[in-house]
Amino acid sequence: MTVAVVQFGGSNCDRDAVRALEHVGVDAERVWHEDGLPADAEGIVLPGGFSYGDYLRAGAMAARAPIMEEVREAAADGVPVIGVCNGAQIGSESGLTDGAFTTNASARFQCEPVHLRVERADTPWTAAYEEGEVIEVPIAHGEGRFEIDEAAHADLVADDRVLFRYCDADGNVTDAANPNGSTDNVAGVLGERESVAVLMPHPERATLPDLGRSTDGAGILRAFA
What we know:
The chain has helices spanning 14-23, 67-76, 86-93, 150-158, 218-221; strands at residues 2-7, 27-32, 43-46, 81-84, 100-102, 110-118, 134-141, 145-147, 162-167, 186-190, 196-199. By secondary structure, it is an alpha/beta fold.
């Protein structure tokens, strides 16, 4: 599978994503947004960074780039798509998933390892894990707080589209384990198709063993393998 890692002005995790994907055995290439999706793209990553300087809202301008129409069409056709951090913001702003990401409750940028509880293990993104398993993946964001209105949140839960929740090392979902004030401790969600997902933590930063950190994020990227 060839995965297109879409690069916008201000993206800064595109090279990291390519290297991590190649580490798990996936062919990947960076694609400049103005060039459109390659015809042979069998997967898509919207990487982290600060597209367009986070002007207006994080991800809002990139979500309106012409390539995102191609991404939406590809997602509708079943092509796997994942948005990470700024890519999650772009994904939600473009309607790939419900909810939105806004300023952290702390009102500051946070860069730290966090624990995530795997809420479902029957999706492409979580097939490498067990339901309820706790993994460690870092965050690096200033606008990562997941917000969604009450009715839409109820639908999200009823449809079982919460992929990860912030938790403590023992898997307890608590306010203390919530790094940014996200509604219901949500860290990652699915779109209407299980082949579409967004999450704020960075799996590509928890994949390479030579970094000397957790490699728990590799399982998420193996969805493309």
